[in-house]
Amino acid sequence: MMMTRWVGRLILANVVVFIITLGSPAMTRALMLVPAFILQRPWTPVTYMFLHADFMHILFNMIGLYFFGPRLEQRLGGKAFLGLYFSAGVGGALLSILTPYAAIVGASGAVFGVLLGYARNWPRDRIYIWGILPLEAWLLVVIVTVASLYFGFSSTRGSVAHFAHLGGFAGGYLFLKWRELRSPARKFKKAVSAPARRPGGDGADLKRWQRIDREKMHPVNRDELDRVLEKIKASGVGSLTPDERAFLDRFSPE
User: Fold this and answer.
1) Which tens digit of pLDDT belongs to each residue from 50-61?
2) Residue range 5-177 in CATH 1.20.1540.10
3) Helices (H), 77-136
4) Residues with catalytic annotation?
């Protein structure tokens, strides 16, 4: 799987912070989230998501980010992907107020937001749990949500921050819905300004997109290119979303 820019940088940042904090418990305490003290320590809803309790904790979070993140970043673009990641992470911090005095660390909330974004775009993709059990992406989100609700309100919730997971789903969902609501305005703005930016309008854009060299693309991007070009063939250039136009522009020759 091809690594994308922001997924790679987020994994690197998490690994670097994990290594640094191994020898600095004081830094861990300063950056961890304790929901009851958010007002006194307003940086912690962001910094907590770069801390991890142990090697297995960071390993599983980074595996999730590696498997779900690159394809989603390619679909959304880097800026929107980061918006989703941090919205989910902060959402996890805010919902953790239900466990006000728990010390919370980890990128799980942010990664759960990425999982949600993946499932909304490719709901039927099969994900193999432990490399054995196949679950479609949408079903995995449902199962994790139900489990987090059950264990979150259970008296035996243990050391897992289940409300951070739920908050990650909630923050990710709100970001994606906000982005969808903005899309019609962005599409209208782009439609009005596009002729001024590119002489020839949609016809010139289509010719440029058709010159994209498929052989130089990663298979995931190649599949997306085929899908978008088929959409143009069936419904015309005007049916494209701003994200689909941006995807084509990223790979097309100037």
Assistant:
1) 999 999 999 999
2) yes
3) 78-95, 108-121
4) 108, 165
DSSP string, 9-32: HHHHHHHHHHHHHHT-HHHHHHHS
pLDDT at 184: 58
- 10 contact partners, CB below 8 Å, separation of at least 6: 65, 69, 85, 107
Q: What pLDDT, on a 0 to 100 scale, did the predictor assign at position 47? A: 97
Q: Whose structure tokens read 């015309």?
A: 236
CA distances from 158 to 79, 88, 249 (A): 35, 22, 48
CA dist 81 and 59 (Å) reads 21
Cα–Cα distance, 88 to 82 (Å, whole number): 10
Q: What is the DSSP letter of 199?
A: T
CA 137 – CA 143 distance, rounded (Å)? 10
Helix, strand, coil % over all residues of the chain, rounded to 5: 75, 5, 25
Cα distance between residue 112 and residue 110, in whole Å: 5
Is the pLDDT reported for residue 243 higher than 80? no
| Number of neighbouring beta carbons within 10 Å of residue 203 | 10
Q: Does the pLDDT of residue 187 top 60, yes or no?
A: no
Answer yes or no: is pLDDT of 175 > 90: yes
Across the range 210-236, mean pLDDT stands at 83
Lowest mean pLDDT across 18-27, 62-71, 157-166 = 157-166
Q: Are 76 and 117 in contact (CB under 8 A)?
A: yes
Spans of all domains in the chain: 5-177, 198-251
